Amino acid sequence: MIRIAIIGLGLIGASLGMALRNADPKESPLGAVEVIGYDREPRVVRAARGRLAIDREAHSLAEAAREAQIVIVATPVRAIHEVLSELATLLPAGVIVTDVASTKAQVCRWAADLLPATVSFVGGHPMAGRERSGPEAADPDLFREAIYCLTATSATAPQAIEVVEALVRAVGAKPYYIDPEEHDAYVAGISHLPLLLSVGLVTTTSATPAWKEMAALAATGFRDVSRLASGDPQMQRDILLTNPHGLARWIDEMIRFLVTVREQINTGDAPAIEQMLQQAKAARDAWLDSKPHLRPGEADFNAMPTVERPSLLGFRFPKREK
Amino acid sequence: MIRIAIIGLGLIGASLGMALRNADPKESPLGAVEVIGYDREPRVVRAARGRLAIDREAHSLAEAAREAQIVIVATPVRAIHEVLSELATLLPAGVIVTDVASTKAQVCRWAADLLPATVSFVGGHPMAGRERSGPEAADPDLFREAIYCLTATSATAPQAIEVVEALVRAVGAKPYYIDPEEHDAYVAGISHLPLLLSVGLVTTTSATPAWKEMAALAATGFRDVSRLASGDPQMQRDILLTNPHGLARWIDEMIRFLVTVREQINTGDAPAIEQMLQQAKAARDAWLDSKPHLRPGEADFNAMPTVERPSLLGFRFPKREK
Fold it and tell me: ∠B104-B56-B91 over CA atoms, to 5°?
């Protein structure tokens, strides 16, 4: 039996616990597991227990570290530094450590700096999430068929890679090996830039005095583009702060795009605008075509609510002019 | 019986035809109607007939205008100028003209300039749409419970307002009277800015040499924020070109936002970033709370696919480093 400690029992930590405990020991590449859970917040631990995400609770990081063969650090990104510092003095030789953070370069540097050579580290980032956070939103199927980024270097012990890869497969995900810097550059464009655009849309529109009237007209287009703004602010803050280099590039690209489009609209350059719109449509449609399905049982990757309609609750009919 | 001519049988024109023809004459505020359809493209007319969107076809604008009491111009925005110019010489006195364009100020100016005083114009904009276009995507329920913006001035004949309002209610929508300039300023923020951000996300990311690798990692966050980039390029082009003033303001606001965030990320200003993220989440969550339902029978306005997962078709496992 393999003992796995999960440090941080939020959405991802608790979902991993549920997925690991649900896996059939006869079919899982990890075999039988025991999941030890630790979180600074007793409320979170209770909720994780309630979701059957852990076998038992550790009352300190030391207690969690003492018996584990695998330690999964599932805290927000910036807390990982502190957790790894403490673990460095606690972990017995041979323990394998991994994390689940959305940025990888800084975390991998911390691991190299802080952890003793007797401990192996493989960075991880499951490409799975939800708007809602906490163990209450945890789902043992969250990782099913998901791509799970893993970082490893020539210095990483082959056995550590095998064990973490088995863990990824045990929760139903697919390992995808990638360089930490490359990972951060890519997700800056396809994950963190969309987050910033969502937040920017809500920040700019909701700050105007006319927001109430605008909000009455806003429908599914606004809803979809703004969706990521409803995520967990602390997690998002850490993501933005630990990927400054990757983000700066995409922010600059986006500003350049907006300046170009503003000029095209001002000068009424119809051919340039139409070409841009056609190229974007072609690129997105090709991308969608490459993703014909979601997880088993889930709706089409393409299936989106398509009717733009604001609700009428709270709607006041303005006096009509005649 | 009221004869209604629909000029342009794309998604909105054909959906209006279907909705008008489906309405029970005993319950509809318009009573019995006959729908005459015209489109420059014979292929589009055939498709609209196939969807039972029209009672009969007109073979020219003149034929459509000759008998109609209400004319709905449902062409892309910039074609409306030409259509109104032609209609001006064709329409008998007393005819009521309306449109369905996504921008209203310029269309209302065209109508005032071009149409004779014997013809009434009330601008319209149903807050309803789909990604797919053309009569093939038409839906008689597209406008059910939708907000339908209407413009009218002190010069508009009260009877024209009553008739267009009856038309809006006949297709199941809710009239919302608004000044054309105000309309354009509002939709620039909640509809055209999201469109530009969607297009900008796809344009910037898909232009990079690493797009193929990035695309493999892109999941539902990217999909949702980029969704509007899959719309009809010609319709979008016209929308952007006929709302330059409204858009310029929001493009500038968005650039200011991105410059501010870039600085906050560069200097590692965690409190400012967290405050921004918290305010955006609060604003969006409050907006969502004000929209608890979509159309009858449709899923929750809140219900979104939440699991981020790219498909694995075409996925190649990179060689792992050891």
Answer: 50
